[in-house]
Amino acid sequence: MESAKYLSEQNIKFLLYDVFNLESLKQFGLYKKHNRKMYDMVLDATFKLAKDLMWPILEEMDREAPFLEDGTVKVHSAVRDIMRECGEGGWIAAGFPEEFDGAQFPVLFNSVCRFIFWAANYSAGVYPDLTAGAARLISSFGDQKLIDTYLSPMLNGEWQGTMALTEPQAGSSLGDIATTAYPAEDGTYRISGSKIFISAGDHNGVDNVVHLLLGKIDGSPQGVKGVSLFVVPKLRPDENGKLVFNDVTVSQVYHKLGYRGCPITELSLGEKEDCHGFLVGEPNRGLACMFQMMNEARIGVGLGATAIASAAYYASLNYAKQREQGRTLNDKSPDRPQTPIINHADVKRMLLFQKSVVEGSLSLLLQASLYADLETALSGEEREKWALILDLLTPIAKSYPSEMGILSVSQGLQCLGGYGYCDDFPLEQYYRDVRIHPIHEGTTGIQGQDLLGRKVMMKDGKAFDLLVEEIQETITVAAGIEELSSLSQQLSHAMEILVDVTGFLKNLAAEAGKETFLADATLYLDLFSIVAIAWQWLKQSIAASKGLAAGSSKSALRFYEGKLATAQYFFKSELPTIRGLQT
Amino acid sequence: MESAKYLSEQNIKFLLYDVFNLESLKQFGLYKKHNRKMYDMVLDATFKLAKDLMWPILEEMDREAPFLEDGTVKVHSAVRDIMRECGEGGWIAAGFPEEFDGAQFPVLFNSVCRFIFWAANYSAGVYPDLTAGAARLISSFGDQKLIDTYLSPMLNGEWQGTMALTEPQAGSSLGDIATTAYPAEDGTYRISGSKIFISAGDHNGVDNVVHLLLGKIDGSPQGVKGVSLFVVPKLRPDENGKLVFNDVTVSQVYHKLGYRGCPITELSLGEKEDCHGFLVGEPNRGLACMFQMMNEARIGVGLGATAIASAAYYASLNYAKQREQGRTLNDKSPDRPQTPIINHADVKRMLLFQKSVVEGSLSLLLQASLYADLETALSGEEREKWALILDLLTPIAKSYPSEMGILSVSQGLQCLGGYGYCDDFPLEQYYRDVRIHPIHEGTTGIQGQDLLGRKVMMKDGKAFDLLVEEIQETITVAAGIEELSSLSQQLSHAMEILVDVTGFLKNLAAEAGKETFLADATLYLDLFSIVAIAWQWLKQSIAASKGLAAGSSKSALRFYEGKLATAQYFFKSELPTIRGLQT
Questions:
Q1: Residue B513 touches chain A, beta carbons under 8 Å
Q2: Residue B239's CB: how many other CB atoms inside 10 A?
Q3: Which residues touch A71 (CB under 8 Å, ≥6 apart)?
Q4: Residue A313: closest CA among A363, A347, A351, A258
Q5: Whole-angstrom Cα distance, residue B359 to residue B382?
Q6: Would you state the torsion angle of the CA atoms of residues A428, A431, A435, A438, taken in this order, to the nearest 10 degrees?
Q7: In Å, how far are A371, A389, A392, A471, A567 from A467, measured between CA atoms?
Q8: For the complex shown, is ipTM > 0.85?
Q9: Are A505 and A457 in contact (CB under 8 A)?
């Protein structure tokens, strides 16, 4: 097998099939047509598309950043190919039901495809991914006319979809949105306002751009309760179906630290009072619509961060195997040849740290994806259970990979020394690219507030209790496997700490008020995250132990042993940091 | 007072005069001429030069990065002004004795000047700083002819000085240097080889470039014992004093993540067999010469990292005071105006974290600088004492500011949300710039090995014992101040942990061999660093308590209260992380 450049195919299959048992989803009618053979075929096609189309232009897309010319944003010429391939090949529609010509794949599988694209080239993967997210909003909440008009060209990759939320005065505070929708006589709206930081907000790799935009209908209530969702295309079909300019102009393309292959734009809407908007769902219910897809978007951020960290891990691993420098401490005589730096303990530590972050994060993200599938497939109380756990885990699945992804990439860069700081290697780009993730789709601070202030408190702590049960189940299984009993005990102890701290904070909420209660929400998020990742490492260890016991090829055995060693590392070096956070 | 843009003048004076009592150095003959009035005047001139000449071109120097044209590296036109001002104004020679027309300032004061320049513009400050370092090597180890030829134009800022150590196969492993010096009949050498990653290795802002270069005299022993130090100028004075080309060519300017205002070059030496080198000091003693100045260089790295983190802290602090977004948790009604984000607890936490890193690091670096002065001023056992403590502290003073500086700048960037990721604000540049510091002058991994493998072990642990006494003294003083007694106890407990861990590791060295002993050296460095910074916060708290007790202006009182609050933060949130590292 060719040495991995940015991800491990073996790890992906291990997680999908051994840890999360993707095939078992067949029991639900929704996924009954999919079997392993089909999944493997699509996986292979996804690996190939990522490798052939996205990976080769990773650096080019960064160096030749998008720019504004004659009112249009010019992007790398390959963006059109990528959108077409992802459209015609079915990736944009992969998660959509058959009625929209979708493959109806489970989220668990779709998340892996997103990860593969992003590991090859984060910016490149954003175009189709954003389009799928925007299309899903239309398919979930739009009327038949919107669906008929917009869905097919978006899912085919001919039109770009975007999420247009942020305004200069309304970043984290979406209730302060000022973009206004004035009702027109034809039942549509005339939009006036401006939006900032809109990813893929315009570009010449597609024939049209469709903004899923938050705005306020003139006269609607203040705050979040007056926010509505609209479809606002760059070009709108006129009565004859001909595309005409819809008064959406790009006023700026931002110059960013990284993630440069995809333009982030400032949009001006209705400068000529001819910007038509089409309401999606009920008036004043825009934020609720948007939040229904927020879980998917936030898991997407976690996947993107993990994917970049994965690419950085393999880049530094490959370097460390080849780069010779210095000698081992036990034999330093200068007449010996130099040793590959992977033989230095500190380099090994940096690589193990990366592996623990990358594979721990991916596991948690797939866990969350599986919960999303269970929520979709089931109903009643069962559905509510998985929905609650997913809601609780989402801020963690968004933030841990984003925050630790930065540290992980930084350690990857460090493995290369001075070369890591120069653009002869991709590490410096990964370091710039990955920094976006703790910011977009809700900053880490917002995620902390969401976790502690809403998710832990909702339904009197029911979600928290349900997750504790889930984790307890893993602990119990591991306790029955001899080589995992120590890890099982350690996680059990960590859970006690988490439960204690949570109880303490809930009391604080009652006694000292919200401001005090939430002051350390980000630290609580850190603590919770580390426990959650330890849980995932224990889960992976169980699957690896089974694999070892079953006997297998030499390379498989080495893979399983690597899993167990990394779990040991995480429990020894990362899990104890909760003791510092506990205070 | 104008709001600070990149540093706090008040903090600098507090550290110099209240914490480290700069004036008391007058007791030593070397510094007897310097008084507070003089220091204040030079400080003001330094603030002004940084503000007028360096700060305004911070972004320009980044955007218009150096490039190679017609064999010369073209840099920003202001570099010539900066070198001239720093030369003629006396900054390059500030630390040199009077015999070289230097101001003979203590290291403690010089470190502050380096910090001020670097906070305004890191790249700009590197040119004069490198020149001073190279000139010091010549003044310490060069013969009279070298001193007569090179010192004056370097100290005047007409010639650039560099450190030329690294080669493709010899990065961290300097013993593997292959650049060869062939003895010539005239007693000089002909140099042949190549060097990489040489900062300011060539540029058009000076009339000549003088490389302090490590090479091997043909036939010398293998490894570090065969390395010699040479002066290798770009242009050498011929017998008539006319500058002629010395066969040093630039083959490449690296494209770097940050620190772009200063070129890093690849040099080719002796392609035409006419590269003259001049031995500095004894043959085969080059590494010893180089290491004598390594303390200064490594403290310089710490200062540079702290300076960038300081600039990022003030940029994010000023933004947080002005940017209005959201409402406080206790009153979220949308008809209230939005609040400046500094009122959000999580933003406050991010700012406090930065302040604790920046001011804690600067304090430690000035502490190390003071030890350097005591070493210089004293003799015999006293001298050895301070030399040992300085040796022990140096890897910490290099690494903590570098590693935590990255996290600190990242939190600064985070305070700005999406704006922090764009180049409308300087945060993204600081984020790129600061990443160099854990790499150059010995990576963090190397510093960990140095701390545990050499410094802690040397002279049977004498340096460690002496530092423990120093810290104990601070603990004792703080114990006598009521409001500091709890912090004093906490540090005392942390010291017990540090002493225990150190003892454990020393036993491990004896029992399990070097490889095992040093495997976790970087984690030991982390633990030691946090304790050292806590010590500095306790020291600052003592001075702040005295200031509060003495009564003072309203702004001074607020400043002292800010110090105590930050110390509380550090002890509550940062110090406990040693519990995770202890295991």
A1: yes
A2: 6
A3: A249, A250
A4: A351
A5: 28
A6: 170
A7: 11, 6, 8, 6, 21
A8: yes
A9: no
Alpha helices in A485-520 (DSSP H): 485-512, 514-517
Q: Could you read off the pLDDT of A392-423 as tens digits, one per residue?
A: 999 999 999 999 999 999 999 999 999 999 99
**CA angle centred on A462, ends A459 and A466, rounded to 5°:** 155
CA distances from residue B120 to B57, B113, B304, B309, B394 in whole angstroms, order as listed: 9, 11, 10, 11, 24
Best mutation target among A421, A423, A433, A517 (most B Cβ atoms within 10 Å) is A421
Distance of CA A319 to the CA centre of its chain: 27
* Residues B322, B331: Cα–Cα separation, whole Å: 20
Which range is least confidently modeled, A169-173, A339-343, A462-466, B232-236? Answer: A169-173
- Distance, CA of A34 to CA of A23 (rounded, Å): 8
Using a CB–CB cutoff of 8 Å, tell me whether A123 touches chain B.
Answer: no
3-state SS string for B135-188: HHHHHHHCCHHHHHHHHHHHHCCCEEEEEECCECCECCCHHHCCCEEEECCCCC
What pLDDT digit, counting tens, does each position of B460-477 carry?
A: 999 999 999 999 999 999
Catalytic residue among A9, A441, A511, A561: A441
Q: Which two tokens stand for residue A532?
A: 């959650």
If you ran DSSP here, which 8-state letter would residue B203 be given? -
CB distance from B168 to chain A under 8 Å? no
Residues contacting residue B384 through CB under 8 Å, at least 6 positions apart:
none
A2 among known catalytic residues? no
Contact A144, A151 (CB under 8 A): no
- Strand boundaries in A384-537, DSSP class E: none
Q: What is the pTM of this model?
A: 0.96
- All residues of chain A having their beta carbon less than 8 Å from the beta carbon of residue B166 are 418
Contact at 8 Å (CB) between A340 and B510?
Answer: no
Interface of B with A in 305-364 (CB under 8 A): 324-330, 333-335, 338, 344-347, 349-350
| Contact (CB, 8 A) for A530 and A578 | yes
Q: Which of A45, A29, A166 is nearest to A98 (CA)?
A: A29
